[in-house]
Design brief:
There is one protein chain. The protein is an alpha+beta fold. A five-stranded mixed sheet has the order 3-2-1-4-5, with helices on one face.
């Protein structure tokens, strides 16, 4: 991921930090892994070597919180969003 994309992504995570609207993002993590990050949190809420496992965990977290999941591709761009709100 390019440095400017990473900075944009980090800024985006901060927009809803600490609010009930904080959403979950499935993003590339380390070399071959995936992470679920809650907006506003620096550390991942969950990590896995499998994108599918990370997606399932993000869905569970978002359903519990009544918010959304953003699925990012290998390039860091959002590919899909899933809504679990009211």
């Amino acid at each position: 991921m390019a440095d400017h994309q990473k900075r944009d992504q980090e800024d985006y995570f901060e927009d809803r930090a600490g609010t009930d609207d904080a959403r979950f993002h499935v993003v590339p993590h380390d070399e071959d892994g995936w992470a679920v990050k809650k907006e506003g949190n620096e550390d991942p809420a969950y990590t896995s070597g499998s994108r599918d496992e990370a997606v399932e965990e993000a869905k569970r977290m978002a359903q519990e919180a009544g918010t959304m999941v953003y699925l990012h591709g290998e390039d860091g761009k959002i590919e899909k969003q899933l809504e679990y709100g009211d």
